[in-house]
Amino acid sequence: MELFASRRFRPGRASSRGIVLPMTPPNAAIDNRDTPDYDGTLRAIADRLASWEGPIVVVAHVDPDGDALGSALTVARALRALGKDVTLPMEVPDYLAFLVEDGETSAPLEALPEGTLLCVLDVADEARIAGAPTDGAAFVVNVDHHGTNARFGDLALVTPSAAATAILAKDLVDALPVAWTADLATPCLTGVLTDTGTFRNANTDARAFAVAQDLVAHGVDYAALSDRLQWRPPAYLKMLAEALATLRLPFGGRCAMAEVSLAAKARIGGAKDENDDVIDAIRYVEGSYVAVLLKQKEDAVKISVRSRPPVSAQAICVAMGGGGHVPAAGAKLEGSDLDAARARVEAEVGRELARHGLTPDA
Ligand SMILES: [Mn+2]
Q: Which residues pair with 298 in a beta bridge?
């Protein structure tokens, strides 16, 4: 899932498209309601894409995960199959590079070509779009599943009830006059698998299973994909050991907290941590309601939060300027001070636990 931090776009401010949204109270950044007319909006987006004569630029969020890349590849491949002029300016993380064919993606665009339809996938916050500016787009389509999405764009399909943007991409391809192939279905299923934690996460529902069933029927080699998605570089296991060695259980064990410091990364040779799944190693501590992973960067500390009801990871992260989903969210605190970040996060976790009467002394 997409974890964003900077919120240059805020309700009440004029967006790049000149739309002024109504002033709203601080936590109005969260709106977990789905776009009301799903079928109508999907149809309108499919028709707009299918009839678009000019260039189409497909983008997703910075630091793309399996859902961002998978959704973008699915939509881009479908549109190319329709003969569209499609650009996919994306940086592909090493662990997902197996999905991408040579020449399929390109370097970031400085400016959009004249008459561009910009198709934005899995991006809650316009400021977190990677690969292209939004200025100068002739038309903007916004397809996403984050409750913290500001509903930007000329057509916005925002469905927080969907486990992955890839589920929306699947419906979009169904609505286009294009035949499913394994090349379309494989990245699409990747998005469903990564955002549901291979059907373990709280967002997993009948729709996710149904979409996966269809995609496997469209030719995905499931055994190979599932195996490949679980490969990790050897250094990852060393990083996991470093992270687990820092495990603490504050609030009487209702929170599980671990961290990856720059020092720890240096000890293991500066391994990449593109996968966000160290958090999965601490989220099932018995008795915990919330898991927090802090990752120290040169200029910031990245926070990943997972929660189980009634605790909201989304509420904790929005309070720190971040966003995401109710059970899984993230934030980025400026500055590399790990002690300060830890204290800040613990205070927010404490507030959220207290809100539900879950602090040990409550
Ligand atoms: Mn997603």
A: none
Residue 14's pLDDT is: 32
Q: What count of other Cβ atoms lies within 10 Å of the Cβ of residue 225?
A: 21
173-177, 200-204, 298-302, 310-314, range with the lowest pLDDT: 200-204
pLDDT of 45-81, one tens digit each?
Answer: 999 999 999 999 999 999 999 999 999 999 999 999 9
pLDDT digits (tens, 9 = 90+) for 181-240: 999 999 999 999 999 999 998 899 999 999 999 999 999 999 999 999 999 888 888 899
Kindly give the distance from the C-alpha atom of residue 102 to the centroid of ligand 1, in angstroms, as a whole number.
Answer: 24
- Centre of ligand 1 to C-alpha 164, Å, is 5
Structural domains present in the chain: 26-229 (3.90.1640.10), 234-355 (3.10.310.30)
Distance (Å) from CA 145 to ligand 1 centroid? 6
Rounded to the nearest angstrom, the distance between the alpha carbon of 267 and the centre of ligand 1 is: 32
What is d(CA 265, CA 171) in angstroms, rounded to the nearest whole number?
A: 41
Burial of 40 (0-12, 13-18, 19+ CB in 10 A): exposed
Helix ranges (DSSP H) in the chain: 38-51, 66-81, 165-175, 182-195, 206-217, 222-229, 234-244, 262-267, 313-318, 338-355
Q: How far is the CA of 234 from the centre of ligand 1 (A)?
A: 26
Span from the CA of 361 to the centroid of ligand 1 (angstroms): 36
What angle, 0 to 180 degrees and rounded to 10, lies between the N-to-C axes of helices 165-175 and 38-51?
60
Which pTM was predicted? 0.84
Q: What sign does the dihedral 15-20-22-23 (CA atoms) show?
A: positive
- Torsional class of 119: left (φ above 0), alpha (ψ -120 to 50), beta (otherwise): beta
